[in-house]
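Dear H.,

Thanks for agreeing to be a second pair of eyes. The structure we're designing against is below in token form, covering all 238 positions.
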């Protein structure tokens, strides 16, 4: 097995490792003081579990728990990135562990960009989630491929996806199974994942709510994240 590079140390986080079948997933936890919902954070392409630490701190400030993991093939985890092919299995393993923690009352999946796509694929196989948040995320890979302004995305997808993944790794294809309350967040200035990606998914899922943030590009600002979490609190009745 290849040597896995360690994630950076984060002073206010506790490192955690999950053995999920053929891979080891690394990440962090930020535990609150009492029984509360837990948010599982899933990073975007080219990032890792440390990237969402500022979001985890905002979650912790609301007296919720936060867990951030690196997906397979990214810093801190073993395996090879497959852009969602193994997402349901890997994320499902971590969700099962979170549910076993005595101070966790419920589980929310929060994914940014690629992480939002993976959260959708995992949620389609999960029966008990309080909510799902997809931020700046692709929902249909074929139209994402044609509509994104970034040629590097097209080259990556060409090199990574198996033929069946164009449909099977598109959350829109599983919309009928995404029955949990879902908050879909788009930025009006997002050129990476155009707003139409989120709008189509929010309309297709049974319990979807669209939050469109004016002047937001692909990456939310700290203020945008604060608004997203405030909206999640209302939408999921946390």
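And this is the sequence the design step returned. I haven't edited it by hand at all.
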């Amino acid at each position: 097995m290849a040597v896995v590079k360690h994630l950076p140390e984060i002073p206010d986080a506790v490192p955690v490792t999950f053995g999920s079948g053929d891979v080891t997933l690394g990440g962090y936890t930020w535990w609150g003081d009492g029984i509360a919902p837990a948010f599982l954070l899933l990073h975007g392409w080219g990032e890792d579990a440390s990237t969402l630490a500022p979001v985890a701190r905002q979650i912790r400030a609301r007296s919720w728990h936060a867990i951030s993991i690196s997906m397979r093939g990214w810093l801190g985890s073993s395996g090879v990135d497959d852009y969602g092919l193994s997402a349901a299995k890997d994320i499902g393993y971590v969700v099962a562990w979170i549910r076993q923690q005595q101070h966790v009352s419920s589980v929310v999946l929060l994914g940014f960009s690629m992480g939002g796509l993976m959260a959708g694929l995992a949620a389609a196989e999960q029966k008990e989630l309080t909510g799902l948040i997809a931020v700046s995320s692709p929902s249909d890979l074929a139209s994402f491929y044609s509509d994104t302004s970034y040629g590097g995305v097209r080259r990556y997808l060409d090199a990574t996806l198996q033929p069946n993944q164009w449909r099977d790794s598109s959350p829109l294809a599983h919309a009928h199974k995404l029955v949990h309350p879902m908050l879909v967040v788009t930025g009006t200035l997002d050129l990476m994942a155009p707003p139409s990606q989120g709008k189509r998914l929010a309309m297709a899922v049974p319990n979807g709510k669209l939050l469109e943030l004016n002047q937001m590009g692909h990456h939310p600002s700290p203020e945008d994240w604060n608004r997203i979490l405030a909206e999640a609190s209302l939408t999921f009745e946390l």
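Two observations from my side: Residues 222-235 form the longest helix (14 residues). The chain has one domain: 14-235.

Warmly,
E.
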